[in-house]
Amino acid sequence: MEELKKFARYFKPYKYHAIFGILFILVSMAFGLLIHENDFFTAEWLNQKTNAKFETLSPENNLARYRVNLDETKTSEIIVFVDAQIGLPVKQEFYSIRDGQRILTSTVELRNFNSAADAKFFEVPKDYRKVSSKEFYEITRREQTK
What we know:
Elements: H1 2-10, H2 15-34, H3 43-46, E1 52-60, E2 63-70, E3 76-83, E4 88-98, E5 101-109, H4 133-144
Antiparallel strand pairs: 1-2, 2-3, 3-4, 4-5
């Protein structure tokens, strides 16, 4: 049990992230159970490969911009903003196109990104010791029966 407490202390700053992550996983699993296998959101539909065409646009606010068209459709497009300093997309704008009008339907944005991590998160615990797989199994079984 002490090992679990130590593990929990390391992840304490991220407890809300973990809780929400687990909650989202459970909701998505429940949602998946509610959908009939021949419904619109089947695994086959979600796993289909989509052809994407990328077009480089002029930069905006020191961010590279790309227009993405999926399967050469004329009814939607995505604008992706990439921050070259961190090497990640930081914003995506999803547009629906109807009668020549671009309508923003949703935006996803990465904010307050910090790639720095405190070195203490990578330190080996002082009481760490290597155990065999057999001993590990015995410890976990013992903890499960408490």
